[in-house]
Structures are given as structure tokens and as C-alpha cells.
Design a protein that fits this description.
The chain has 130 residues and is an alpha+beta fold. 45% of the residues lie in helices and 24% in strands. Strands 3-2-1-4-5 form a 5-stranded antiparallel sheet, covered by helices on one side. The longest helix is centred in the N-terminal third of the chain and has 33 residues.
């Protein structure tokens, strides 16, 4: 089998897979936008032994349970305020453990990453195509 054709097939397959994941993330963000419950969370410090700089976001769900969100390594790039600040949080009523920050950057960052990966895979396939 021709190596260029195999590489083209792999790039197309990866590109379609990444595109599917991007659409799935967009659908999840849209579902949160339409059906999500919005509450206010507070940024708190991490434990002293944790070396990550960004804090955790603590909020209460509709049943009064306190939950925490780890906004990840790039929390400051996605607009997380300093410790003690408040930030809006959105979650689905039946899944408060899968809550996300209610900022445009935080909601759309995963889908943007998958779209970028899809574009890179398709572009590689176009470049190596015979």
C-alpha cells in the first residue's frame, strides 16, 4: 500500500475524529447555556502541598451541597479572578459534579482546541496528499 495514501487516510481519520469531538464540546456548551443553572462560586486557596498556582472554585448546588471545581492549569488565562473573588458557575441540574465556569473562554476553550487539532490534521493530509 502506498505510504502517502496511508498517511492521507490517517490524517483524514484523525481530522474527522477531532472534528466530532469539537462538535460534541460545542453541544455540551450549548446545553449548559440553555438548560444550566447559574450560581456564584468563590475562588479559594489550594492546600499548601499543592504546587499549582490557581485556586479552586467552591459553590453550592441546588440541594445545598458544597462542591469544588478545579479550573485547570490555565485558569488565569481563562479569566479566573484572584483568591477571594467570585466567579459565575453553571451546571446541569442532574450533574452538578460536571460544572464549569460561566465565562466564554472557559466554556469554548475545549471546542476551540479540538477544532484547531482537526484543522492541523486535515492540513497535514492536504500537504502530504499525492
Amino acid at each position: 500500500m502506498n505510504a502517502e495514501l496511508l498517511l492521507l487516510a490517517l490524517c483524514t481519520g484523525f481530522g474527522l475524529g477531532f472534528l466530532l469531538l469539537a462538535v460534541r464540546q460545542l453541544a455540551a456548551a450549548a446545553r449548559l447555556w440553555v438548560r444550566g443553572l447559574r450560581v456564584t462560586g468563590v475562588v479559594t486557596k489550594r492546600v499548601a502541598t499543592d504546587r499549582r498556582r490557581a485556586g479552586l472554585v467552591v459553590f453550592t448546588d441546588h440541594l445545598g451541597r458544597a462542591l469544588a471545581i478545579d479550573p485547570g492549569a490555565y485558569a488565569t488565562l481563562c479569566g479566573l479572578p484572584p483568591v477571594g473573588g467570585s466567579v459565575p458557575v453553571v451546571y446541569l441540574r442532574n450533574r452538578p459534579g460536571a460544572a464549569r465556569l460561566w465565562t466564554l473562554r472557559h466554556l469554548l476553550a475545549p471546542s476551540f482546541g479540538w477544532f484547531l487539532s482537526s484543522t492541523l490534521a486535515f492540513g497535514t493530509g492536504v500537504v502530504v496528499s499525492p
